[in-house]
Design brief:
The complex is a heterodimer. Chain A is built from eight helices and nine strands. Chain A is an alpha/beta fold. In chain A, the strands form two sheets. In chain A, strands 3-2-1-4-5-6-9 form a seven-stranded parallel β-sheet, with helices on both faces. A two-stranded parallel ribbon of chain A has the order 7-8. In chain A, helix 7 links the parallel strand 7 and strand 8. Chain B is globular, with a radius of gyration of 16 Å. In chain B, strands 2-1-3-4-5-6 form a six-stranded parallel β-sheet, sandwiched between helices. The termini of chain B are far apart. The chains are: A alpha/beta, B alpha/beta. Chains A and B meet through helix 4 and helix 6 of A and helix 3 and helix 4 of B.
Chain lengths: ~250, ~180
């Protein structure tokens, strides 16, 4: 049987790396895309994939086309690259606001459009990494919440627009995940530290593998009738207004 | 009370701007200068540009342009407002796609989704209240202004962080507009 082929942007670390490993374990051929040649090469070698180096924020970036060439086509494009900023709205510098919009919104739009002809040919799918913060915002990461809400809206619109072409478009909405963006983005807390995170109702912080499992399902044939959804993987954190108190027993 | 209306977009902005200062073509730096100068206690941000159609057909540069003219300008206005040492009320007026996306109007829906989240995170900031008014294109500007005036006024002080949809019930349920068609 011919292996399915996937591109994962932001695939060299955190959730993206977990997705690459899961897809490879499921038999996919994976293009690991990221800005770091060293990390992309290492993970591609580990999983038997190919490394694609590029910066999705660059309007001339051709990561999608290069991945399609390298793999001989694409059955799934996972637009996972993203950046986060720890700042409420008044404290968000213009440059950081622009970067968040460039990477988390505009690059997703640009790369989704680039992916369409490849996926139309294979009746494949797009999976966008959004966030639980896009479902229910968080003031301390205001610009990130705004960008991820836009990502979710974009996912739903593209699902309706491209459904007739046989292309599915979905999103995953991870909560606090380790290892993930919260533990790997430069300048955020102590890398690897999860202390101070609120415990979700299930009592355990989401792992990269948990998010990868959801991603693998949504790009698989098992999800062939699922499009336009934003799947929360947050151990229940967005299930209730006071879900963060469930584990501590502090409910009113 | 000092009202400032920011927005380039047609009759709704004009209706809200009666007796108020009005700033069009809101570049981010210009917005900041105007807010600092006028020190508004009522700020209406009108983001009702003409539709650019669906996301798949528009170049990313167009999405970027519209984002800058609407969402980025709105965020800059609210950021600047928080620098001022007084309370203020803000209303963001944008298309209904910010709640229930319309893929035929995907560009505006995406930006409106961001504007709704902007309202939600900004509503937590001290000293200001922020609400969103989502309007269908066919709603008379005067009717929009009536509701916006309520949200901007002191009689609605407990309303903060909420969204009001003005679409005559169009998006209440799936294909609600068919009811109108059947009635015609």
């Amino acid at each position: 049987m011919t292996a399915m082929r996937a591109l994962v942007t932001g695939g060299t670390s955190g959730i993206g790396a977990a997705i690459c490993r899961r897809l490879a374990a499921d038999g996919w051929r994976v293009a690991v895309a990221g800005r770091s040649q060293t990390r992309a090469d290492a993970l591609a070698a580990e999983i038997g994939g190919v490394a694609i180096v590029g910066d999705v924020a660059d309007p001339s970036d051709d990561t999608v086309d290069r991945a399609a060439t390298a793999l001989g086509g694409l059955d799934a494009v996972l637009l996972n690259a993203g950046v986060i900023l720890d700042a409420d709205l008044p404290s968000t510098p213009d440059a950081d606001w622009d970067l968040l919009m460039d990477v988390n919104v505009l690059a997703v739009h640009r790369q989704a459009r680039a992916a369409l002809p490849h996926l139309q040919a294979t009746q494949g799918s797009i999976l966008v990494t959004a966030s639980d913060a896009g479902v229910w915002g968080e003031a301390p990461i205001a610009a990130y919440s705004i960008a991820k809400r836009m990502t979710l809206t974009m996912t739903r619109c593209l699902a309706a627009e491209w459904g007739p072409a046989g292309v599915r478009v979905n999103a995953i909405c991870p909560g606090d995940t380790a290892p993930g963006m919260l533990t790997t983005t430069a300048g955020r807390r102590t890398p690897g530290a999860t202390d101070g995170w609120l415990a979700p109702p299930l009592g355990t912080i989401v792992r990269g593998e948990d998010v990868a499992a959801a991603a693998a399902f949504l790009v698989s044939a098992d999800a062939s009738r699922i499009s336009g959804t934003g799947l929360l993987i947050d151990a229940g954190m967005r299930s209730s207004a006071s879900a963060w108190q469930a584990q501590s027993g502090d409910e009113r | 009370m000092t009202r400032l209306v920011i927005g380039t977009h047609g009759a709704v902005a004009q209706a809200l701007a009666e007796g108020a200062r009005f700033a069009s073509s809101p570049a981010r730096t210009t917005v900041r200068e105007i807010v600092r100068r006028d020190r508004p206690t009522e700020l209406a941000i009108v983001a009702l540009p003409p539709s650019l159609g669906s996301l798949g057909t528009v170049e990313t540069s167009e999405l970027e342009r519209l984002l800058g003219e609407t969402l980025t300008a709105a965020a800059a206005a609210i950021q600047t407002l928080t620098e001022l040492d007084h309370s203020a009320r803000v209303v963001i007026v944008c298309p209904t796609g910010g709640l229930l996306p319309d893929h035929c109007d995907g560009v505006r829906s995406t930006i409106a989704g961001g504007l709704v989240m902007l309202m939600e995170v900004a509503s937590t900031l001290p000293g200001i209240s922020v609400n969103a008014l989502l309007v269908a294109d066919a709603i008379p500007p005067a009717e929009v202004a009536t509701v916006a005036n309520l949200l901007l006024g002191t009689r609605a002080e407990s309303i903060n962080g909420t969204t009001i949809r003005m679409d005559g019930g169009h998006d209440a349920v799936l294909a609600a507009e068919t009811r109108t068609e059947e009635m015609d």
